[in-house]
Structures are given as structure tokens and as C-alpha cells.
Amino acid sequence: MPLNASAWPALGAPSDALDAPGDALGGPWELLEDCRSNSTEAWLWLSALQPSYLALVSALGVVGNSLVLCVFLLQRKPCTVADIYLGNLALADLVMSSCLPFWAVNVARHYQWPFGQALCKAVNVAIAMNYLCSVLFLVLVSVDRYLALVRPLRPSRLRRAGWAKRLCLGVWLQGLLLSLPVLLFRNVRFVADAGVEACILDYPHPAWVLQYNVTLNVLGFVLPVMAVSYCSWHIVGALRESRARRLPGARAETRSTQLVLAVLAVFLACWTPHQVGRFLDTLDYFGLTPWCLWGKVLDIGLELSSYLAYSNSAINPFLFVILGRSFRRRALEVFRAAWARRSTSRDGHSVVSWAASECPNVRQQPF
């Protein structure tokens, strides 16, 4: 069956934390027929670029976040509380990056989902959890920096590694809980307008999408941004004061905090456009956008903003390397230790091989 390109927005982006344009409130199925042709060329252009872009983001994200996790797991010193939160953030980004190739293949096949019902649900739940968990891990690392710099003389359980691990487990569970609508309503369905078996959101009522939009706007963005902004404001003030007084350790704290603030800034730059688009989508649901072309513009805007958001998972490892002097030092220690073990193993194998060739009658077994 030929593919109707005007139906592609309904099959759009992979995530439900990043709702596909067709999963948006009042989606393109309800637009007037004369509006559909206005953005067909734009969707054809986007669909041609998406597979390559997703493959690039996935490759960078998998390699970069895998290296970050290796450094945190193999370093000699115990992980600090901030390391635990940033390590879990890298794990969330790694899961996200690992799921993007499924959607790259899906877009390349004109949204004909080839991986079955189980992976349709699993991949999209994982992508949705990435955003929810990432923003909460960033809140936790901001609170940790706030307690370390603004209230250093007030001991808190939150600055203990054991409590940090418990909080991370709670974040993963909460991310799964908030992703339940994705688990329940993502299904493989035949879409007649597109002529494909697609992995789409199949909400029983548009009110579900409204509730999901509001939940993610408020719990997944507004409240976390308020908490992060409050902590960051006081952190910057504390750093300025410590530098002015030339307190011991101020320079080291400044470097480590600069990395955290950079990660926060990049996260906001990557995710704010999509959250704004989601809010406008909610307004569109209530009919506050009077002209039909606005729906198409919003659909394309949501699509573009979602792929900007995906890139955050690939950017974070570069921030660790560029701004994290302590991280670079630990990474060198880990890779030097791994190289030393490899060299020792190779030298030991060479000695055994030489002994076997020069003394064939000598038993090599210890007993």
C-alpha cells in the first residue's frame, strides 16, 4: 500500500516523554484536509535526515557514556555522592542512546515498525524514563552541591553515599511509575492513512494526553527547574564568597561545581524548547490556536525540539572531558591501570611461551 506522507506526523518521534507530533493533543488526524498539504515537503525532508541524525547521536552517546561509566566504576577511590548521581545520569543517557537505533530503522522504513509489540513498549518506556530520571538526577546533584557549598557546616544524610544510592533507586522507580501510560498505551497498530503497521500511542481518550502533558510540564520541568535555579543561584554566590575570602579548597570546589553547572545549562538548552512546545500543544487542545496551519507548525516544532533533546545524551560525556579536570585525571588513571594489566599479562604469556619452547621437558604445572 502506498505511503501517505501527510500522515507521517502521527507516527513522528520515538518518545513519549517527548511526545510524537501525532501523539500530541488533537493531533494531525483532526486537521482539515486543506492544511495537510502545507507541510508535506517539510515532513519528507525531516524523515530523510532523521535516520542519519539518530544513528550519529546514538553512536556518540553509547561510546561516550560507556566510557564515563567505566571511569566511575573502575576508579580506585570510592565514588563521591556527586559521582553517584552523575554516574546514574550517564546510565540513563546510555539507555536512551541504545534505544535510538530502533527508531532510526523505523523512520528509514517509513514508520513500518519491524520489532514487534514487546520492543515497541520496552524501547519507548526506556526513552521516556530517560528524561524523567535525568531531570531528577540533576536536581539531586544540584542539592548535593548546595549542601556542600552553601551549608557545609550542617551535616546531612543526603551527603552520604548510602543515602545517595537509595535516592537513585527511588528515582528509577519514580521514572518507571510516571512512564506507565507509555507502557499501557504504546502499541503496534495499522494506520490506514499511512498504510503501515506503526508503533504509536493508542490513548483511549484525548484526556489521557492532556494529563500526561500537564504532569510532565509541572513535575518533569517546572518544579525541577525551580529547585535547580534556587540551588544554582546560592551555589554561585557561595563560590564568589569563597574566592573573595581565599578559603582553602575554594579552587577545587569551583572546578567541580563548574562541571555540574555546565551539565545543568546544557540540559536546559536542549530540553526547554520541547517543554515549551508541549505547553503550546496543550493550549492547542483547548482551541486557543485559531488557524489550522498553526497545528502543522507546532507538529514540526515538536519534532525538531525532540531531536534537539535527544542530543543532550551525547553532549554530556564531552562536558565531563572538557570541563572535568578531576574526571580527566581519574580517566587517565583507569586507562593506565588497564594498559598496565594488559602489558603484564602479555609479558607473562611471553615468558611462559619462551620456557615451553626452550625447555620442552620441564613441566609447567605447579604440582
Automatic annotation (TrEMBL):
Domain G-protein coupled receptors family 1 profile positions: 64-320
Cellular compartments per GO CC: external side of plasma membrane
Gene Ontology terms describing biological process: calcium-mediated signaling; cell chemotaxis; immune response; positive regulation of cytosolic calcium ion concentration; smooth muscle contraction; vasoconstriction
TM stretches of this protein: 53-74, 86-105, 125-147, 167-185, 218-239, 259-276, 307-327
Pfam families membership: 7tm_1 (PF00001)
Membrane-topology annotation of the record: Multi-pass membrane protein
UniProt keyword terms in alphabetical order: Cell membrane, Disulfide bond, G-protein coupled receptor, Glycoprotein, Lipoprotein, Membrane, Palmitate, Phosphoprotein, Receptor, Transducer, Transmembrane, Transmembrane helix
A GO MF label: C-C chemokine binding
Cellular compartment(s): Cell membrane
Protein family per UniProt: Belongs to the G-protein coupled receptor 1 family.
Quaternary state and interactors: Forms a complex with PECAM1 and GNAQ. Interacts with PECAM1.
Function according to Swiss-Prot or TrEMBL: Receptor for bradykinin. It is associated with G proteins that activate a phosphatidylinositol-calcium second messenger system.
Protein name: B2 bradykinin receptor
